């Protein structure tokens, strides 16, 4: 069993992954910067106990993090309390993909893991991993097995928080599909702008990326697989025909693949 951490800007997802990459169980805690190594120790031990595992059942630990302060505390926790080997996904790790961006060291580990998961599921075909988290990200693997690049947009809730913060009269709304694109009260007006606007943005970016990938490959029919993931992934995938399959555990699947390539 592999213990995997996906440290995002809003949540830390902790997963127990079987040899086949399947997620045995997972937990989600908020990404609070003040959490200490000892607190992570309590959380993880409780999580293992709930699943009737002991540390001897864990062959290793892998971390994808885009929050350096949390990476630091997790490293202290692992150094202090855990004997099993651990790896922090970063530059130099074998991923099965060539990172062909201009500054590979600045690429978020979550994007690399999502791309590795998508590439595994697509069985080596070009693919796009669309992750709906704090940010909405579109990570592209081209037909030369290169992680070619990414588009980063504000996540839907991040956009809402910013909208509310920068206006006097607007308040938080529940994020659900509006009844119409013509909102007839403030809440519905915000939903119309935010949810439909976000859907339009996402579909436009995907269409552009598909077009550019096909143009570069000189093949207008090039088969490109799409995978959606992240907290809002299911919601958007249900309301669009162009977001591919929803894969809740895409990032964990990528981490499993990366772990196997590096042991
Ligand atoms: N339990 C929840 N209820 C409502 N919104 C949530 C919940 N968990 C996450 N979110 C929202 O989803 C987004 C984060 O999604 P997540 O997939 O956890 O991304 P990240 O990897 O960026 O932490 C944030 O905008 C957050 O507010
Ligand atoms: C784009 C991100 C903010 C996404 O974070 P998330 O929504 O998963 O919390 C993160 O991958 C990041 O900080 N990346 C660094 C910049 C880059 O990848 O180019």
UniProtKB/TrEMBL annotation:
Catalyzes the phosphorylation of pantothenate (Pan), the first step in CoA biosynthesis. Its cofactor is NH4(+); K(+). Belongs to the type III pantothenate kinase family. The lineage of its organism: Bacteria, Pseudomonadati, Spirochaetota, Spirochaetia, Spirochaetales. It catalyses: (R)-pantothenate + ATP = (R)-4'-phosphopantothenate + ADP + H(+). The active site is at residue 110. Its EC number is 2.7.1.33. Substrate binds at residues 108-111, 186. The gene is coaX. This is Type III pantothenate kinase.
């Amino acid at each position: 069993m592999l213990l995997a951490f996906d440290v995002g800007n809003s949540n830390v997802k902790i997963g127990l992954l079987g040899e086949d990459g399947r997620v045995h169980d997972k937990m989600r805690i908020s990404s609070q910067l003040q959490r200490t190594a000892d607190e992570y120790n309590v959380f993880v031990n409780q999580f293992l106990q709930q699943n009737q595992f002991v540390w001897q059942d864990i062959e290793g630990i892998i971390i994808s993090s885009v929050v350096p302060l949390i990476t630091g505390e997790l490293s202290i926790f692992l150094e202090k309390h855990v004997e099993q080997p651990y790896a922090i996904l970063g530059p130099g790790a074998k991923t099965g993909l060539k990172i062909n961006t201009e500054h590979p060291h600045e690429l978020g580990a979550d994007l690399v893991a999502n791309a590795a998961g998508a590439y595994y599921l697509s069985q080596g075909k070009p693919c796009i991993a669309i992750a709906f988290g704090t940010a909405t990200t579109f990570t592209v693997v081209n037909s030369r097995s290169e992680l070619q690049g990414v588009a980063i947009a504000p996540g839907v809730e991040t956009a809402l928080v910013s909208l509310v913060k920068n206006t006097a009269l607007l308040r938080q709304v529940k994020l659900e599909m509006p009844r119409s694109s013509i909102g007839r009260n403030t809440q519905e007006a915000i939903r119309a702008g935010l949810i439909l606007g976000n859907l339009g943005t996402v579909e436009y970016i995907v269409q552009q990326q598909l077009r550019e990938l096909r143009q570069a490959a000189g093949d207008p029919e090039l088969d490109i697989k799409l995978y959606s993931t992240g907290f809002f992934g299911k919601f958007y995938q249900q309301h669009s025909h162009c977001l591919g399959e929803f894969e809740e555990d895409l990032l964990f699947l990528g981490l499993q693949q990366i772990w196997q390539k590096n042991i």
